[in-house]
Amino acid sequence: MIFPIAGVTISPIYLIGVGFVVGLLGGFFGVGGSFLAGPALFAAGVQMNFVVGTDLAHIVGKSIVAARKHRALGNIDVKLGAIMVAGTIVGVETGAQLIQWLKGKARIDWVVGPTFIVVLLGIAGFMAWEGISTLRKQKRDRVTQARRPGEHVSKRDHSTMAFISRAVHRISIPPHVSLPVSGIARISVWAIVVVAFVGGFFSGFLGGGAGYIRMPCLIYLLGIPTHIAVGTDLFEIIISASYGTVTHALKGNVDILIALVMHTGAAIGAQLGATLTQYFGGVRLRLAFIPLPLIGAGLMLHSLLTGRPLK
Amino acid sequence: MKRELKSWLKAFVLELLVYAILVAVYYFLVLHFLGTPLKNFYVQNRKLYAALALALIVGQGLLLEVITRQFIAWVKPRSEVE
């Protein structure tokens, strides 16, 4: 099939397949999946500028499908998502501006790339350690056997690292809000905005949704239950990716036809992924997330070694 | 749990079949006719193209979500009865 805007010929079956896999990951983990969709589009012959913009457009459609499913499952904290939007958009712009400024400097890839790899490996290592220690504690305390009548497996969420989020909740900088859906009585708005800003910054700096950074931040720093973090992140991605789609489309970086075809596969994958979260407890969902930052680190390393630009 | 999962998988396979038909129709009817006008907007009026791009992907997202949700609601009671 010929896509006249990007000027490439790609099999729609290939695009649907890529969309399905990325949609599945998005629905299950609440991430954009750019670390897979980007290389897949690039490998199909799409120019790098179209890869970034088109991927963002497809993320909008996919996140709508997955977020609506998560909303039906009660996994979205709309108040939290709305507060995060402002921080994310400022972060996206800051990251995008910084990468533009750094592009003029020599060896930028070898400064940013290794830093990014260390951050991703750190996240994966921390999540693995936390997940395993939480599972061991659950076994010791027999928490898993103490399921209350009517309680679904997916709504039980324990973490040995809860002291980090409790410390964040004690930050006294006003204004404060309560997040009843996430079970948080009082939290500084600034803590939420900073987490959103960090996620947005990586999104603008490296492209994609940066869910591999934002998701662990929501869980460990803000103390959002894993399933609500997945759903809320998707809700927030709809807003930030829409903003990215418009700005990239204005620069001529979006082939909406490719995005529409990819999205037909992503829509079903996102539904499947969101439904599957019901069958996993919070800690197992976090353990299943670990390969994602590792894949991101691997792709970054590959990009450094092959000399392909970061964005 | 296993029964629930089996029932859901059955619904999903049926959903996939209907989806395949819908997607095929979608390609041949919609994308075929959209290609040229969108290319023209992309070249001549980038602001309109950006607005259309966002409207199309949001519209498709909402439409596909409604279709799959309705279909699951239609299929699920049948697979539970069986």
How does this model look, in words?
Chain A is mainly α and 311 residues long. In chain A, 70% of the residues lie in helices and 4% in strands. Chain A has one domain. The longest helix of chain A has 34 residues, at 108-141. Chain A is globular, with a radius of gyration of 19 Å. With 82 residues, chain B is mainly α. Chain B has one domain. The interface between A and B is large, with 38 and 36 residues.
Descriptive terms for the model:
heterodimer; A: 311 residues; mainly alpha; two-stranded antiparallel ribbon; 12 helices; 4 strands; B: 82 residues; 2 helices; elongated
Summary, kept brief:
The complex is a heterodimer of chains A (311) and B (82). With 311 residues, chain A is mainly alpha-helical.
- Briefly note the structural class of the backbone of chain A: mainly alpha
Q: Give the terminus-to-terminus CA distance of chain A.
A: 26 Å
The chain-level structural class of chain B is: mainly alpha
State the end-to-end CA separation of chain B. Answer: 16 Å
Layout of helices and strands:
The complex is a heterodimer of chains A (311) and B (82).
Chain A: E1 2-3, E2 8-9, H1 12-29, H2 34-43, H3 48-72, H4 78-102, H5 108-141, H6 162-169, E3 176-179, E4 184-188, H7 189-206, H8 211-221, H9 226-250, H10 256-276, H11 282-289, H12 291-306
Antiparallel strand pairs in A: 1-2, 3-4
Chain B: H1 2-44, H2 46-81
